[in-house]
Design goal:
Helix content is 14%, strand content 42%. By secondary structure, it is mainly beta. The chain has a domain of 106 residues: Immunoglobulin-like. Strands 1, 2, 3, 4 and 7 form a five-stranded antiparallel sheet that branches. A hairpin with a 3-residue loop joins strand 2 and strand 3.
Length: 176
Amino acid sequence: MYYTKIFTILAVSLAVGFLGCTTDKKVEAPKQERVEKSLVPPKAEVMGKNFAVLLNDLKVSMMVDTASKEIIDTPTLRGNIKVTNKTKGLLDIQAVTLEYLDEAGKPIAYKPSEKMSKVYPFWKTLKPEETAEGNLDTTIPGNAVKAKALSKIQIDLVYVPSPLSRDTLILSEKVE
């Protein structure tokens, strides 16, 4: 009888413990999501006096709050860039800078809280008709994406023109 009471109390307390203390674990949906939007047209080619520039596979990537649909961080513009030298001399490209323009041709400003990275270092020397390719990775103002204000992208190539001449010298050296 003594063992029956102990066994009954133990069984009831275990049953109450397992059934009465269940915890509902709720899984929350992510509060942020990465959104990618393609630029239209996804491929653009422009000819300048000294260069031909081709941009393709242009995509804007940004983190968005799922509840409010607000852009959380500075959007990035990624794609491919192809630069061709159209002169008769060497051109030493230093960088490519991008400016984002609205319908009126005015620059779209970055918010003070946004990171500004409009310069893409290129560091290539091109011979006449030579082409260099690279991956473009810069920021774009949130207002250009959110308000769909982007109308044009202005590309500035920073370069050192010919008559740049180069000499290659070979030194005979040994380690002893």
